[in-house]
Design a protein that fits this description.
The protein has 907 residues and is mainly beta. It contains eight helices and 55 strands.
């Protein structure tokens, strides 16, 4: 944060006054700094032994703090009526600051941040922590003896209010012959103190060449949730399984149990309020690409995200994916054409190392996303998670679907050493209908990273039931990867194998025989079919090294690949070697950054001529005022007369996050067009009106309101707000914005100055210093006003009509220092002044202020010519100030009143 000259001057004087308070009282306060001694009101977080009363107005001076609404603070701290009655008189008085005992630099050290509670039950002690913008209160032990010490549970911010919040996301992807559109929304409405109504909806529309367009709209979740304290919850309505693998429902990462969604009741333990030791983690998704491609990630029919990736081993960014354990379908497009689809398991949950026992029970009627003959049947499910120390956890789950039972057992292991980390998951499922499933995953990280995943599914689909109850499928999957730092670069090796079975031909003799395919031991209406396997194996190895030099970055990658496919329809093998060289230059300028890329990619497939690809691209990025902009152009071609051009753009501002890409692919005899777009935003409706904003996760949020100014000519950025891991938000004067926040997560919000250098005035944020903790449940909104102070700085030289300097003149516009002996002045005004009013001895003068040059936030007016002025011509808002009235009376320019005469004194 850059401090402006007036702020530095005021800070220096404040420090001097704090070191010499007795002298200040004896000699008076310099003109313009009276508020530092008299104090100013700030919005501070009032705390008492782990409790918080939220933001409250507090009068802060150099020596003391005084609560302006102590009764509300005592009530918000949830003290007993006896304690409130005993403490209210003391809390209404000025309390010593004790700021010297606060912890410095935001860190804790022995003895800081604490005062011994007083023995007198009617006494209150305070500690003002400027770094955190908080006032800590200390009262007699008898008022807090029954309170528990700070525990591992978060408390919802006390100044949060119930509101309706909604997050909407639209993903669109298409090309010649296919289109996919997904619109998703998640809303939360706060009810009472511990409840909320949650609604998740999605709309899917897909069309492929030669087929009809399919539309689907449904509510995934529509339930009421009530938190029973901080460890248990109750939900009623329609809900899916995602909450079971999130902080709201616990750490039940069931990936094999078949029930997905139901309508009924759920009760269990929650990890929502636990102060987790580890952040929410998502299972990485890896895709192997032989060529540059676009990858669309789907959850069933829902388009989650679109990625544009280079050839090689790519790890997808899954931070935007929803919570839960589910299968993700990756559709891979090369040159705008769908070449294959892959299934990958995905798990996004909370901190599974938590040492508490977790359980849940749920029951109702089955209500799957895809309607089938099992919809509406009675269903029940239960789960139990037992931690065995900090390194092991056992999770068991059972489900009964229409009289058919399933059971899943899962073992999680984790051991973290000083330099290595081992994680393993083993799970198995058994159904009373003969369905079985296994899933294992092992990862080891030290200097190298090793990952192994194996899955085996044998559901009713192996008996060719297209509409099976278990939804397990009939497939085997195996994937393994290794990453190793080597010779200043990185080596990668990865292997995947997937085998599925589908219905083949009828078993029997001659196909023309009507009895063919009938087993003599089976009833005459049952036919037997063969299983037709489909096997795909892919492996890839590469070495990559990046060398940076000033603005340039040179990357080289060499590798080999092989992909084999075997099925009843086709057998094929694709293998070869590749070499990639790229040069990148990043340039930073006043208006943003520019990145240019040049790349050469050579591939030698087996039994084919070499494929040489070349590309050039440029990206422009700007972070201007309150928005982030990015535009990218990519041009590609190869030696097979295949060319492509892509244009993409991204915009992040107060309206939301928007991005889009258009690509054109050209080759001999065919042209393809592909496009994708995404938009995400959030809204909130609370007691103070409507708010709109960008970002992800709008279950809760901050409603920010920046003060406006009467000066219509003053515009631009007024403040910067940093919340958690979000990109720093730049807020304009008078702006109202919603900052969406994920619920049940701890955040810290910090506001600081951010006035632009080309602004007419220095804009300073007042009264909200320090970092504020924020913890919200769904459907909760915290109002965050951002008060500002505007300072206009004029520098010039005052002269009378005769051209003589007006030395020693008093400035009447504001309590600022007067002119120097040569008539020079540096004046800070709280508003834009058009005229400077001076009092030199008994002469009253006016001087027009015409800005000749602007430097940063300083306006240079040069030499100003001042003309005599009558007292009656002095503007009333200036003449009626007590300070100005006293100065005029001293020079006999204004008759003294009895009140003024008795006051006496001069500033």
């Amino acid at each position: 944060m850059k401090a402006h000259a007036p702020a530095l001057t005021r800070l220096a004087v404040a420090l001097a006054l704090s070191l010499a308070t007795p002298l200040v009282a004896a000699r008076g306060v310099p003109v313009g700094f009276e508020d530092l001694v008299a104090g100013q009101t700030e919005q501070l977080d009032v705390r008492l032994f782990g409790r918080t009363a939220g933001l409250s107005p507090v009068r802060v001076t150099l020596e003391s703090v005084q609560l302006e609404d102590p009764a509300r603070v005592l009530e918000a701290l949830d003290l007993s009526p006896e304690a409130q009655a005993a403490l209210l008189p003391a809390l209404s008085e000025q309390l010593p600051r004790n700021s010297h005992l606060a912890c410095r630099y935001g860190g804790g050290s022995a003895g800081c941040g604490y005062l011994d509670p007083p023995e007198d039950p009617n006494t209150v002690r305070a500690l003002y922590d400027e770094g955190e913008g908080a006032v800590r209160l200390f009262v007699a032990r008898q008022w807090i003896s029954a309170e528990q010490a700070a525990d591992r549970f978060h408390q919802v911010s006390s100044n949060a209010e119930n509101a309706f919040l909604h997050q909407q996301t639209v993903n669109f992807s298409g090309g010649r012959g296919y289109q996919a559109l997904t619109a998703q929304g998640a809303g939360a409405l706060g009810v009472l103190q511990r409840g909320h109504i949650a609604v998740d909806w999605n709309f899917n529309s897909q069309q492929y060449r030669g087929g009809q367009r399919r539309h689907d709209f449904q509510f995934d979740n529509a339930y009421y949730r009530h938190d029973l304290g901080q460890q248990h919850y109750l939900q009623a309505g329609r809900m899916d399984r995602r909450n079971l693998s999130s902080p709201q429902g616990g750490t039940f990462s069931f990936s094999l149990l078949p029930m997905d969604r139901f309508a009924g009741l759920r009760v269990g333990t929650t990890q929502a309020y636990v102060d987790a030791e580890a952040a929410v983690q998502a299972l990485p998704l890896t895709v192997l690409l032989a060529r540059d491609a676009r990858v669309d990630a789907f959850d069933g029919e829902r388009l989650l995200q679109t990625f544009y990736l280079q050839a090689g081993i790519n790890q997808l960014d899954t931070r935007r994916f929803p919570f839960g354990s589910y299968s993700v379908t990756l559709r891979i497009y090369e040159d705008g054409v769908l070449v294959r689809s892959e299934e990958a398991p995905f798990d996004k949950g909370g901190d599974w190392t938590n040492s508490s026992v977790q359980w849940f029970l749920q029951g109702g009627r089955r209500n799957e996303r895809r309607s089938d003959r099992f919809d509406g049947e009675m269903a029940a499910m239960a789960g139990l998670r037992l931690p065995l120390g900090r390194a092991t956890a056992i999770t068991a789950g059972v489900a009964d679907l229409g009289g058919v039972s399933y059971g899943e057992l899962r073992v999680d292991l984790r051991h973290a050493f000083a330099t290595q980390d081992i994680r393993a998951t083993f799970s198995g499922l058994q159904g009373s209908d003969g369905s079985t499933g296994q899933q294992h995953q092992v990862s080891y990280r030290r200097r190298a990273s090793w990952n192994l995943y194996q899955q085996r599914m044998r559901g009713k689909a192996c008996q060719f039931e297209d509409d099976a109850r278990d939804r397990l499928g009939c497939a085997d999957s195996l994937s393994a990867s290794m990453a190793l730092p080597l010779a200043g670069g990185s080596a990668y090796v990865a292997y995947t194998r997937r085998q599925t079975w589908s219905r083949g031909r009828l078993l029997g003799g001659d196909i023309d025989d009507p009895l063919a395919g009938l087993d003599p031991l089976l009833p005459p209406w049952e036919q037997r079919y063969s299983r037709e396997p489909s096997l795909t194996r892919t492996w890839q190895a590469s070495y990559n090294r990046v060398q940076r030099w000033q603005e340039f970055s040179i990357s080289a990658r060499v590798g080999v690949w092989q992909q084999q496919s075997h099925s009843s329809l086709r057998d094929g093998r694709d293998r070869g070697i590749f070499l990639n060289l790229s040069l990148t230059r990043l340039q930073r300028g006043d208006r943003g950054t520019s990145q240019r890329r040049y790349s050469l990619d050579v591939r030698q497939p087996q039994h084919a001529r070499p494929e040489i690809n070349y590309s050039a691209g440029q990206t422009l990025r700007q972070d201007v005022e309150a928005q982030y902009r990015e535009a990218t152009v990519d041009l590609r071609g190869n030696n097979s007369d295949r060319y492509s051009a892509a244009l993409s753009a991204q915009l992040q501002n107060s309206i939301g996050h928007t991005g889009g890409t258009v690509a054109h692919y050209q080759q001999r005899g065919r042209a393809e067009m592909a496009y994708s777009a995404t938009h995400s935003s959030g809204l909130a409706l609370g007691r103070h009106g409507f708010y709109w904003g960008g970002g992800l996760g709008a279950e809760a949020g901050l409603a920010v309101q920046v003060d406006d100014t009467d000066d219509l000519e003053l515009t631009g950025v007024a403040a910067e707000l940093q919340v958690g891991g979000l990109r720093r938000q730049r807020l304009a004067l008078g702006e109202r914005r919603l900052l969406p926040l994920p619920a049940y997560q701890s955040h810290r919000a910090e506001v600081q100055d951010a006035s632009a250098l080309n602004s007419d005035a220095a804009i300073r944020v007042t009264g909200v210093g320090g970092s504020r903790p924020v913890f919200l449940s769904p459907g909760r909104l915290v109002q965050m006003p951002v008060p500002i102070e505007v300072t206009y700085t004029f520098i010039g030289n005052a002269r009378d009509i005769a051209g003589l300097p007006l030395g020693g003149a008093r400035i009447l516009n504001a309590p600022v220092p007067g002119t120097g002996s040569n008539g020079g002045f540096v004046a800070d005004f709280p508003r834009r002044e058009r005229t400077l009013y001076l009092l030199q001895e008994d002469r009253l003068l006016q001087c027009p202020l015409q800005v000749r040059e602007r430097r940063s936030v300083v306006m240079l007016v040069g030499t100003v010519q001042c003309e005599p002025l009558g007292v009656a011509q002095l503007p009333a808002e200036i003449r009626q100030q007590a300070r100005v009235t006293r100065l005029l009376q001293e020079q006999a320019l204004l008759a003294a009143t009895p009140q003024t005469a008795s006051a006496g004194g001069t500033p």
